[in-house]
Write a structure and sequence with these properties.
alpha/beta; six-stranded antiparallel β-sheet; 374 residues; six-stranded parallel β-sheet; metal-binding; Rossmann fold
Length: 374
């Protein structure tokens, strides 16, 4: 009871401080930089509205991954199992944003966030997170986003399918269901190159042993230590999960694998029972031979011949450094004003009108001459 009373007083004190710093007087005294800029000098994670978090632990489950434990500030509103956040880190004075899914249960009582990141060979941000991010560093987060999530009414039969680092959102789903004491059958089907590459290998084995309603199926392409071997196929699915048509399936993994899984469900008329998430950009075909017009960067007073690439790539080729993040149309960090001209959205193929509009330049290709306020 004394500890509870102390926590209440501490929360009340924080409420009073937050209210005072959010006042008009505080805003006037700290103009033009704002309260956060001053307070962060001695309390880096403090912000009136922005979600910031302190890195309190890092661990390496595999040779090419890092698991970050983050303590968010009081602005964090939580998440649904399966959703993602936009993580922003500062690297050499430039803020970079990428999307990652929390892997912890939504019922974790410590209020922490767990992100597991696989460092790809050409992954500028992921390699920084694995090699250079230190305990004590402050990072920036969005609130949780995305429609890929467990429904509030939990399905009786659940099939979780993941590949590689796509395990993180479905791991959150599994941990959440276990914390809730879910009684329905859960099959966890995961694909990796080898056991040494699998994230959460030991914990999954423990969950499988502890919860009788959880079936763990691990498929490896390079060794035979899993319950299955090789890549996903319809034949393998029928043999390993014969009742898959009765399940609500949740899928996250590399594009090639996801495409094969989607086709199986589509061919059998089960697409409504397959829920999926991925953060891979659609490939951009650069058609320089048929590209016409030019790209005008009016604020920078620069002009470039349209190369057929995305506007972000063309801006960088022109020597500009517009803000960007995920480079796949998710984080919206690259949004800017198109003052004139038409653009094609690389994700949908849709062509905009020629008037002024906000566009995401990482997924926009100019159709003729385009003018940007950059």
């Amino acid at each position: 009871m004394p500890q509870l009373t102390t926590n209440r007083f501490a929360d009340r004190a924080l409420d009073l401080v937050h209210s005072a710093l959010n006042s008009r007087l505080a805003a006037a005294l700290t103009y033009p930089h704002g309260v956060d800029r001053y307070v962060e000098q001695f309390a880096p994670t403090f912000a009136l509205r922005e979600v910031r978090a302190e890195v309190i632990a890092t661990r390496h489950q595999t040779a090419d991954s890092v698991t970050l434990t983050l303590r968010p500030n009081r602005n964090w509103q939580g998440f649904a199992a399966g959703q993602y956040v936009r993580l922003t880190v500062e690297i050499n004075g430039v803020r970079r944003t990428r999307c990652y899914s929390p892997a912890n249960s939504v019922h974790a009582k410590d209020g922490l966030i767990e992100l597991t990141v696989k460092a790809h060979g050409d992954g500028f941000v992921s390699k920084h997170l694995k090699l250079d991010l230190r305990v004590g560093t402050t990072v920036f987060l969005s609130q949780a986003e995305g429609q890929f999530a467990l429904p509030e009414q939990r399905p009786d039969r659940i099939l979780l399918i993941s590949g590689g680092s796509g395990i993180t959102p479905v791991m959150s789903m599994l941990r959440t269901l276990c914390d809730e004491g879910h009684k329905g059958k859960i099959t966890f089907l995961h694909y990796s190159n080898a056991a040494s590459d699998q994230i959460y290998l030991d914990e999954l084995a423990m969950i499988n042993a502890q919860f009788l309603n959880v079936e763990l199926l691990r498929a490896y392409n390079e060794d035979q230590s899993g319950e299955l071997q090789g890549l996903f196929s319809r034949e393998q699915l029928i043999k390993a999960v014969p009742d898959y048509a009765d399940a609500q399936a949740f899928l996250c993994g590399p594009p090639g694998m996801m495409k094969v899984v989607q086709k199986v469900w589509a061919d059998e008329g089960l697409s409504d029972q397959l829920h999926l998430e991925h953060f891979t950009a659609a490939p951009v075909v650069i058609d320089s031979a048929n590209a016409e017009g030019e790209v005008r960067f009016i604020r920078s007073e620069r002009l470039a011949k349209n190369s057929g690439a995305t506007l972000l790539d063309q801006a960088e080729a022109a020597g500009l450094k517009p803000e960007s993040g995920c480079r796949m149309g998710i984080c919206k960090a690259c949004t800017c004003i198109k003052t004139a001209g038409k653009v094609r959205d690389t994700r949908t193929g849709e062509i905009s009108d020629a008037g002024e509009a906000e566009i995401q330049i990482c997924v926009s290709v100019p159709v003729g001459t385009v003018t940007l306020d950059i």
